[in-house]
Amino acid sequence: xxxxxxxxxxxxxxxxxxxxxxxxxxxxxxxxxxxxxxxxxxxxxxxxxxxxxxxxxxxxxxxxxxxxxxxxxxxxxxxxxxxxxxxxxxxxxxxxxxxxxxxxxxxxxxxxxxxxxxxxxxxxxxxxxxxxxxxxxxxxxxxxxxxxxxxxxxxxxxxxxxxxxxxxxxxxxxxxxxxxxxxxxxxxxxxxxxxxxxxxxxxxxxxxxxxxxxxxxxxxxxxxxxxxxxxxxxxxxxxxxxxxxxxxxxxxxxxxxxxxxxxxxxxxxxxxxxxxxxxxxxxxxxxxxxxxxxxxxxxxxxxxxxxxxxxxxxxxxxxxxxxxxxxxxxxxxxxxxxxxxxxxxxxxxxxxxxxxxxxxxxxxxxxxxxxxxxxxxxxxxxxxxxxxxxxxxxxxxxxxxxxxxxxxxxxxxxxxxxxxxxxxxxxxxxxxxxxxxxxxxxxxxxxxxxxx
Length: 452
Known about the structure:
This protein is mainly α. The protein has 18 helices and no strands. The protein is globular, with a radius of gyration of 21 Å.
């Protein structure tokens, strides 16, 4: 059976820049703007940053290239693509199913968090955080997330935006969107970093962030850096596979493009730290505030800043852009898999997925309020879905991908395939032992750590 794309002529990226921006946009998202600063804050700043960059280069880049390379090779979505490469019913097809299920579960609560972001953008705009302390900011946060009617209302906004973008297709929807917002995103982030660095007392935060304190490096620091790299780059969601499937096999330079994607992702994470930590130290706030850093610590920080109102609006608008570029990748992954499996049109598939993920978001929304008493293994619904998808399914999918390269694709073939069509940047032969031994063992360590 031919997929709808094959019947109509499968879409492809209109330009090399389109793929780089889309893949970078998916990787950047909340993983860098929200998660990276607080994980770095909890793990010693400079030492964590150094380890994180090393892991991204040695482990993150090869895994991204493997997933995107399989997509380019298959010219289909993850499930149907792996069936095409290995045969229907082959156990390796489970990589596609795991990635798609992970994307579905993550999207279900990601929509909720995007709803929070839109709400906070409006709250900053109307001055809800004027004259408040950090304790009062925490109360505002708790009151809002426990109000399901308000959260559902705000969640509808990003859900519809994502639907309209993805329904327009690869070139007219996704590529056009990321080419417009990604340059704006980077410029805004640089402006915020410059503003943060100009604050009196901010230099102490720069030193804390950039000067490695090797005495703080523990096994936990390394595992945290591994987990953050995995989460940030987006390995195991089947999104890199999907985006790679829109590359023309004989006209794409995947090795070089992959370096650009990973470099942009790491640069954004680094800049995010330069926005957050100098500002925190300038106002004597703790850098290890945890996951509530954006929603509880920053609002009170904004109030104390000169031009804090403008900083707050720009910052939350920036996070919204990053969240949308990731959301586009998640919805596209789910929609193209559904279209190919059910043999339906893109638009029908997109709105089917939009409706399904919005309905799936409701239990996570309710778990922060009326259903907060519902516990699964000691976690509320949102916490359990986040844990199960991020700590188990995501890493399991990544581990299977690494094993696929070793046992099914073969490392020699993997390197040759990725180097096909390359220019100055090529995967070196020295990568073979890393791909064969280091990467699978490291991912297994992440998974065991997550389970424990």
